[in-house]
Write a structure and sequence with these properties.
- The chain is α+β, with helices and mostly antiparallel strands.
- The protein has two domains: 3-53 and 259-394, no CATH class; 75-244, no CATH class.
- Helix content is 56%, strand content 17%.
- The protein is built from 13 helices and ten strands.
- The protein has helices at 3-14, 17-55, 80-85, 122-127, 151-156, 190-193, 200-207, 226-241, 251-294, 296-304, 309-348, 359-385, 389-394; strands spanning 59-64, 90-105, 108-117, 133-136, 146-149, 167-170, 173-181, 195-199, 215-220, 246-250.
- Strand 2 and strand 3 (108-117) form a beta hairpin.
- The protein is elongated and about 100 Å long.
- The chain starts with a helix and ends with a helix.
- 40% of the residues are buried.
């Protein structure tokens, strides 16, 4: 496969512009679809890893329910926060409480989600990326009716957007907005985007009952101790509860599960997109068969002047390979462009989708497209190579 063969292949394809273009479309769509889906999938993976990096590899999350006990029936206890914090290797632990209440703003009433937190531990929640202030200030231990609101909550809950220092009415009490949180793309932090956040003690006074933790977030002293700390927490809570009606999960385990699900979805989508590559390969085969039929006299002349079967085979294989290569290049460019557009759309919706040029994917796309072309063109090329020169020269067109 020297440069002369490539030059001849390109020249032959230029003479059949329309047919070559229609053949290219199958490869372009196939490679473009696969590249776009792989790029978007990799972007999701990188974004998930980035968000879980914020959560921290030394973070553990305790939640009610287990494989045997439903999370609907099981509940964590208020004392579990102190129990977890007393475990050897735990640097700190903080609870998050949850409640649904009706709130009024400018005469408009809405049922909203309220998260109760310990203001003394808000730094920890900010450190692991759950609650981060965009405007205003953090809550303090002395705050009773002062609240934070999520970025999405402030924009979308009521007809009028909520601002700092405005008041909302809850069960006869005025809640004053002292802070608005940053929009969060992280799975655990996302709940705060659409909620009111307040001192959990005030939330208990409003609901008139002692709340149980919705989640407990714990931070190990070091990342290396996380597996041992996880087992110690499980032992401590199981003894206190009399059964294992809770789960202790690590940030690394959550990320692993999330990436596994994303990988499976990506695999299925890429498989579906790859079907169009089969269609593209059939298109190349059809084009090459037509080329062989139309160029029988040319094949006869080449054989008559000494061209071997190997040379004839190479000419048609290179033509098929060039179709695949050109289609692969255009398909990669189109797929990457589609992925970049998806990234922009995702960013505007608040999700940081990381899309970039991947040299391995680029070279893999071109190689795969070239191979598809060569494989699809093999039968037509072999047919051309086996033609009898005398019969080829007799062929009428």
């Amino acid at each position: 496969m020297d440069l002369e063969l490539f030059g001849r292949a390109i020249e032959n394809l230029r003479r059949q512009k329309l047919r070559s273009l229609l053949t290219l479309l199958g490869i372009i769509i196939g490679i473009g679809s696969v590249v776009a889906l792989i790029s978007i999938g990799d972007g999701f993976n990188k974004s998930v890893e980035k968000e879980f990096d914020k959560l921290g590899s030394s973070t553990l999350i305790i939640l009610p329910g287990s494989s045997f006990v439903s999370s609907v029936l099981a509940k964590l206890e208020a004392k579990d926060v102190d129990r977890v914090e007393s475990v050897k290797g735990v640097e700190s632990a903080t609870p998050m409480y949850i409640s649904s209440q009706v709130v009024e703003f400018k005469g408009e009433k809405k049922s909203v989600l309220i998260l109760g937190i310990d203001p003394k531990k808000q730094d920890m929640l900010e450190e692991i990326g759950l609650i981060s202030i965009s405007e205003g200030r953090n809550l303090t231990a002395s705050d009773n009716l002062a609240v934070l609101v999520g970025a999405r909550f402030a924009e979308d809950t009521f007809d009028s957007e909520l601002k700092l220092k405005q008041n909302m009415l809850l069960d006869g009490d005025y809640l004053r907005i002292v802070g608005i949180t940053k929009a969060s793309g992280q799975s655990f932090g996302a709940i705060a985007d659409s909620a009111i956040i307040m001192n959990y003690k005030t939330l208990e006074e409003i609901t008139g009952k002692e709340l149980t933790p919705y989640r407990i977030f714990a931070k190990a002293v070091t990342q290396e101790e996380v597996p041992e700390v996880k087992e110690r927490i499980k032992d401590r809570l199981e003894k206190a509860h009399g059964q294992e009606d809770f789960q202790v999960i690590t940030a690394a385990k959550i990320m692993e599960s999330a990436l596994s699900v994303l990988g499976l979805i990506q695999l299925v989508l890429v498989f579906i997109a790859a079907i169009s590559l089969v269609v593209g390969g059939i298109g190349i085969m059809n084009t090459m068969l037509m080329a062989v039929m139309e160029r029988t006299d040319e094949i006869g002349v080449m054989k008559a002047i000494g061209a071997t079967n190997k040379i004839i085979l190479s000419i048609f294989l290179v033509e098929a390979g060039v179709i695949g290569l050109v289609g692969g290049f255009i398909g990669y460019a189109g797929g990457l462009m589609a992925a970049l557009i998806a990234g922009v759309i995702a960013s505007s919706a608040g999700f940081d989708l990381i899309i970039g040029f991947d040299p391995v994917l680029f070279l893999g796309s071109l190689t795969f497209a070239f191979v598809i072309g060569v494989v699809s063109g093999f039968i037509p090329a072999q047919r051309a190579a086996k033609m009898d020169p005398v019969e080829a020269l007799r062929e009428e067109h």
